[in-house]
Amino acid sequence: MSRFAGAADARAVDFGALGAAMSGLRGGFSEGGPVHFSPSPEPKHFRPANPGMNPTEGWDPFDPLSESPAAATETQDPIAAARAEGFAEGMAAAERMAAERGEADARALAEIAGLLQMMSEFERDALAARLRQTVMFLVTRLVGEVGVTADLLNQRIEAAAALIADSAELAQLRLNPADLALVEGHQPETVTLVGDETIGRGGFRIETRSSAVEDGPTAWLNQLAAALDRTALPGE
Questions:
Q1: Residue 7: per-residue pLDDT
Q2: Positive or negative torsion for Cα 126, 129, 130, 131
Q3: CA distance 203 to 222
Q4: Fewer CB within 10 A of the terminal residue: the chain, N end or C end?
Q5: Residues of the chain with pLDDT under 50
Q6: CA distance 34 to 201
Q7: What is the layout of strands, in order, in the sheet containing 171-175?
Q8: Residue 187 and residue 178: Cα distance in Å, rounded?
């Protein structure tokens, strides 16, 4: 038997039967016309998002230091922009509050300084009055404790009489009646003794027609008080 017999049998296969057999697979085959390509509708032209803006305006492609169009037209993040705007508004509000608080603090400090100045002046006046009273009390007590001596009283009368311009002019020596016995017989010839209850112990007053000289504890205290009134406290 020839080895080509199988090939001959294959050529004898009934193509109709083969088609019938294949038609049972996957629904078989059916006739149809030619299929034509129909593309889906797409835009045929480019349209920029912002037609009124020139993205390459001011850009020189031959200048390596110039800003590129991509960097110049970079879109800003809206969240970052809102955050920056809120931060700027917060800073401005804080600055206004700080300025208002600074003005209020300055006014309060000015009021406190004024009150302190008033208190300082009041305290200084009170201190001056208390110092004056203390000094006067001490001096008055000292004068009272020293008492009146005949020698010292006559020396003071002689010194006061020397101040009279005309030593030959008649004069009256007024002093406390209790001191008359200490002075009597020691006064100048032109001086007449007169007792005067208004003059304190140890004091006297020499009077002439043209002048008068007064001396004694009362006069000393009056002079001391006037000097204290004129004396400024430390720091004034």
A1: 47
A2: positive
A3: 13
A4: N
A5: 1-2, 4-9, 72-73
A6: 157
A7: 191-195, 171-175, 204-207, 212-215
A8: 16
Helices 78-146 and 217-230 meet at what angle, rounded to 10? Answer: 170
The rounded distance, in Å, linking the Cα atoms of 172 and 211 is 11
Would you say the pTM of this structure is higher than 0.70?
A: no
3-state secondary structure the chain: CCCCHHHHHHHCCCHHHHHHHHHCCCCCCCCCCCCCCCCCCCCCCCCCCCCCCCCCCCCCCCCCCCCCHHHHCCCCCHHHHHHHHHHHHHHHHHHHHHHHHHHHHHHHHHHHHHHHHHHHHHHHHHHHHHHHHHHHHHHHHHHHHHCCCHHHHHHHHHHHHCCCCCCCCCEEEEECHHHHHHHCCCCCCCEEEEECCCCCCCCEEEECCCCEEEECHHHHHHHHHHHHHHCCCCCC
Q: Alpha-carbon distance 94 to 100, whole Å?
A: 10
Interval 66-106: pLDDT, tens? 555 555 445 667 888 888 888 888 888 888 888 888 787 78
Query: CA triplet 35, 39, 41: central angle to 5 degrees?
Result: 145
Tokens standing for residue 55: 């993205």
